[in-house]
Specification:
alpha/beta, 37% helix, globular, glycosidase, hydrolase, GH, B-glycosidase
Length: 402
């Protein structure tokens, strides 16, 4: 799988942002999907910009038509993000009406998108509920611009309640629709000279990280209506900065690559698997700069180690397909399959060859196509091929991030 950065948040000092526009994916959709097609990738995470299609509860999804046409021509299957950090200006997430408004939007989106796309139909109602609650209600980066832990907890529960309502609304339209609830894999440790912070770091790792998924699964706050069927598929995002040293104020400090406190990705996935016993994907992962190919190699080895242990890991999403800017500085992160080269104001995707070569190596190892054929939907992925490869290769978890 792959995907495109599609945030539509209100940013702290810049107003409404639209990352699909900033990366020019909105005018380059067919070209971007053709790149995925040529790479043998048939599934892409794509966003519906809730703030831009919802006008006071009246919906206009016509801006999605170019994407839908491009998907049809390139034969790309979407996994739709319905709220990627942004909500309409007239919506208050702390208001009791928030969940109903979101459910109405989800129902309308499903009614518009499902007849226009190939099955299976997959949705992420609210992307990264846990991270959204941090950056919106404790760090103050995005709306609602709150800055306390209590606001973060309240915002997270409001997002969970809305997501559950959204799942149920979508399934009123399409009972067979699949949900992928995506949040970061997180491991937090105390500073070596602060043993007094061991417990708070452990709580964030073992409790806080899972609360949103727990609510969606009905394990916590069952009065909100969660269940294993609502949780459905767990999408666990994996980035190097997800393993951190605790800080009392603001984001924690990412661990250095050689830090002996790093936990193998396979073990982090194992915690998710043991907790929910639901199908899993890695919802996003990528390295940075010249480390992208090495990062992919590590992620694949850890993922196959997880499959070899019996975990139901069904996919890895290389995110993003094309580069994206750092939210704070605007500088290109060089974390995509393709970098973006500015040619007189037009951003041209250029593949990172080492990254693509590593992708090709794993496609061959797992008996996957290198380029999509005329009818990619007639040849579904055989997960047994992946299981067989995991048993054959016998990769073992390690802390090495290359």
């Amino acid at each position: 799988m792959s995907g495109f950065e599609c945030s539509t948040f209100l940013w702290k000092d810049q107003g409404r942002r639209n990352l699909n526009s900033e990366t020019q994916h909105d005018v380059r959709a067919l070209e971007d999907y053709q790149i995925l097609r040529e790479l043998g990738i048939a599934v892409a995470r794509e966003g519906v910009p809730w703030p831009l299609v919802d006008r006071g509860g009246r919906f206009d999804f016509s801006t999605l038509d170019p994407y839908l046409d491009a998907m049809k021509r390139a034969q790309i299957l979407p996994l739709w993000d319905l709220c990627h950090y942004g909500y309409p200006d007239d919506v208050d997430p702390f208001d009791d009406a928030f969940g109903a408004r979101f459910a109405a939007y989800c129902r309308a989106a499903a009614e518009y998108l499902i007849p226009r796309t190939h099955a299976p139909h997959c949705f992420t109602p609210i992307n990264e509920i846990t991270f959204f609650s941090f950056c919106g209600a404790e760090w103050g980066w995005v709306a609602p611009y709150r800055k306390t832990k209590s606001d973060r907890h309240a915002f997270r529960l409001a997002l969970c309640k809305a997501a559950i309502a959204g799942v149920k609304a979508i399934r009123e339209v399409a009972p067979e629709a699949r949900m992928v609830h995506i949040d970061p894999l997180v491991h937090v440790v105390a500073p070596r000279d602060r043993p007094d912070q061991i417990e708070v770091a452990r709580h964030e790792t073992c409790v806080d990280t899972f609360l949103a998924w727990d609510v969606l699964a009905g394990m916590k706050h069952p009065e909100l209506g969660g269940s294993p069927e609502v949780l459905d598929i767990v999408g666990a995002n994996n980035y190097s900065f997800g393993q951190m040293e605790y800080r009392e104020q603001g984001p924690h400090k990412a661990l250095d690559p050689d830090d002996d406190r790093i936990v193998p990705l396979c073990d982090l996935l194992g915690t998710v698997w043991e907790r929910y016993c639901r199908p899993m994907i890695i919802g996003e992962t990528s390295g940075m700069g010249k480390g992208r190919d090495a990062w992919l190699r590590d992620v694949m080895e850890e993922s196959l180690a997880a499959v070899d242990r019996g975990m139901d890991l069904q996919g890895v999403c290389l995110f993003p397909a094309v580069d994206m800017p750092d939210w704070h500085t605007g500088e290109w992160l060089h974390n995509g399959i393709c970098d973006l080269i500015d040619t007189n104001g037009s951003l041209k995707p250029v593949a990172d060859r080492a990254y693509v070569d590593e992708l090709r190596r794993w496609q061959k190892e797992l008996n996957r196509v290198l380029t999509l054929d005329a009818d990619p939907f007639s040849d579904p992925v055989e997960l047994q091929d992946v299981i067989d490869a995991a048993h054959r290769l016998q990769h073992r978890p390690d802390r090495n991030w290359c």
